[in-house]
Amino acid sequence: MIRNLIFDVGDVLVEYRWFEMLTRDYGLSEAEAKRIGEEMFDNEIWVQGLDGGRLSLEEAIHQYELKYPDDVDVMGWFLRNGEQMAVKRPEVWDKVAALKEKGYKIYLLSNYSEELLHVHTKGAKFLNVLDGGVVSYQVHALKPDREIYEILLEKYSLKAEECLFFDDRMDNVEGAKKAGIQAIQVTSREMLNETLDKMLTK
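-> structure tokens emitted (202 positions)
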């Protein structure tokens, strides 16, 4: 029996317009935006540094400057204007609150830097219904490594078989399953809404 619902943040509870930021807002070509996005996101500076809680935003920008001196202006602008990146999913937040009222416990499990998490979730209503959560920067552990799932289970004395995890990445879904947690890959905003609606009508 599922008693606990665990949610990732990015592309689950909020979505991202990073590509639009780089093209529409900053003025890069689509090819340049894709290249710089890959340099930023698929990089240990972002993964282990920011999400791993080892670097502040300004420290990360300095590291990017050392590695990509020709691109640091746009990277610095991007990281310092994080409030432009997140897109709200208020109807999802309402469904999460309704599931809480049905008796489910609600938790977060996300890879995130401290500064960007606060910027991207500022004013988000789902924060008001949380029973807890673990974010990578807090524990210096990252999905899909088994450690971060077990930290969440242990911290709140949760039974893995009573948990259902929602994440947009299949590797993170598989990581949860290896820890004994049931998990669903969120493939779109519409798919998530349909899934939560079915849970609400049970």
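The chain is about 50% helix and 15% strand.
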